[in-house]
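call fold(seq) -> tokens
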Amino acid sequence: MIRLRGLLRRSRGEAGYSLIEMLTVLVIMGIVMEALTTLFVRASTAEADMNNRFRSQQNARLALDKMRREIHCADTVTKGTSTSPTGPLAAYYINVTLPSGCATNTTGASLTVTWCTEGSGSRWGVYRISGSATCTGGTRYADYLTKPNIFDYTAPASGSGILPKINVDMPVNVAPQKSLDLYELQDDIALRNGTRG
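ret:
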């Protein structure tokens, strides 16, 4: 009997959690988990945005590098427009004539390569078409340009001894509504095999 009374006394001293305490803990845990989930989602979105911006900027640099090598080696460059562009630069595309000695010309004869922009609105891509003077098909080298007219040709003044040059201006922005994210590549590329003025 004494033993039974001792057990009863000990069991009365052991109290569990009430339903209100359990619900309070669940609400607090829910708030903490919601905050952590929001943090992880924002971090994931920021990482994806950063990767897209990095990739588009890297592609623009690679396109400008290949374009620079071909224009440096070119005999002649002609510019053209598919429609009437506005802005400081005047061309949607350029036709680059590569002699047989250029590294990117493996045909053994003169080759025409077209560098052009295609797209609409505030998203344009830079394309390279080999063996054609039109802007259809080809390989896309850069994307997310905010304007189509990225080329301008400067002919040298006669008697100046200066080489002709192509000015390239490539504004890249994955999210055009965020003007602070704009990345702009500009270069003046001389035709080393061109006729001096």
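The chain has a mean pLDDT of 82.
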